[in-house]
Amino acid sequence: MAVEEPPVRRATRTTADDDAPPPRGSLGVAHIVFFVVAASAPLTVAAGGIPQSLAVTGTTGIPLVYLLLAAMLVVFSAGYAAMSRRITGAGAFYAYVSHGLGRVPGVGAAFVALVAYNAMQVGIYGLFGFTTADFLDAKFGWDIPWWVVVFVGIGLVGILGYLRIDLNARVLAVLLVVETVTVVVFDFSSFTSAPDGISFDPFTWDALTAGSTGAAFCFVMASFMGFESAALYGEECKDPKRTIARSTYIAVLVIGVLYAITAWAMMTGAGTDKAVAAAQENGPNLVFVLGEDQIGSGFSDTAQVFLITSLFAALLSFHNAVARYFFSLGREQVLPRALGRTHGRHDSPYVGSLAQTALAFAVVAVFASLGKDPMATLFNWLTNLGALGVILLLVLTSLAVLAYFRRNGRAVGESSWNRLVAPVIAAVALGFVFVLAVRKFGVLLGVDSGSSLRWILPALVIGAGVVGSAYGAWLRTARPDVYARIGRGPQS
């Protein structure tokens, strides 16, 4: 894929000047879709997300859940896209909530976003370290601790995050195409070799309501993580008023349809009535076991390599998202001003990138020093925590869209669907999903009802919002100049 190469400037910006221009606009719809879909990691979902949702929830309607959530997020995207045509900033949720609900809730949303995206990104390192170390041991006999692999990965992601966005787009494009082709090959082989024939039962009401339906919605929601991140690159788009909306719609539809088909194919390949048992027995290896039976050992080995690159792509995409939140908050001096610096040559939010790299290193070091299992704790705890945070942000953003357009009257070019009907439906539907997520969080973590973790981890998300809002209220009285900048982006 050809990517436009902007001219390189020789001067390096080393201060967070309020009037400093944002990163250059060089990204189109295709670039943004690559970032968004790469964050959802198709092969990672096929190997981890789908088998895990089947095994834990016992719900055979997982393919239907993907379609229902995709439809829900398309509705959400109507109001989200309308906001993106009026507000362009690297803060995304933070900026939208600030403009819609006010600066104090906006800072609360920013803190929730920082917790959610950092948790998701660092959590994925657990799966990356476990998978890569296991592969190296099985294929080459290299007994390398998982945390050593993770530290190498953190270094590579940090380097790419420091460099300009064009390089990252190329890397993600290659990795995404490779893993998507792998998933499509698996889907085709599963349908053609179906031991019990192809059944449409996974799309029925009975299948949807079997098992723990609420937990199933929560699991599947995690697969959509990152779909909303198109707005994070608003200042780097060639035409943000069109690019963000189109990228978001395309990404939601691609993710929803692809994963619904893949879940259906996996169940078909295992036998619809046997799929839950197969997922419980094989876990993340189910896609490789089925692939080896249907295609051969060569596919299984290749798919495992592509799973590692899939995880790397997701790590890189979430790293970029976190760096841009740091950049936005630093530029407006809500967080230390240094985080708002951009590199003069690469145009990357390099200080925010370095901060995220250091944070990931520190969290992984703590888990490693305590001897924690990278899958059962680092991956499982933090990715579910991240998903819960994003669900809350979706609800807040839907309410912000309603409030914004109510204050600004009948916005030119925006239908009542975009500014009223869709946000109401999205707020109610996603609010219901959030309540289910909190109630079923013990199922998500695989702990019993008496475990304190089922409340401690959700409290981190809600607590971040409370602390952020309190900090925003403090800024209103103690630092009114900073308070006035909140959510206002490059114009602040």
From TrEMBL:
InterPro entries the UniProt entry points to: AA-permease/SLC12A_dom, APC_superfamily
Main location: membrane
Protein localization: Membrane
Ranges that cross the membrane: 29-50, 62-83, 104-124, 144-163, 170-188, 208-227, 248-267, 305-327, 348-370, 382-405, 417-435, 455-475
Pfam families in UniProt: AA_permease
Highest taxon listed in the record's lineage: Bacteria
Topological category with respect to the lipid bilayer: Multi-pass membrane protein
Domain (Amino acid permease/ SLC12A) ranges: 49-466
Region feature (Disordered): 1-23
Alphabetically ordered keywords of this record: Membrane, Transmembrane, Transmembrane helix
Keyword Lipoprotein: no
PANTHER family linked: AMINO ACID PERMEASE (PTHR42770:SF16), AMINO ACID TRANSPORTER-RELATED (PTHR42770)
UniProt protein name: APC family permease
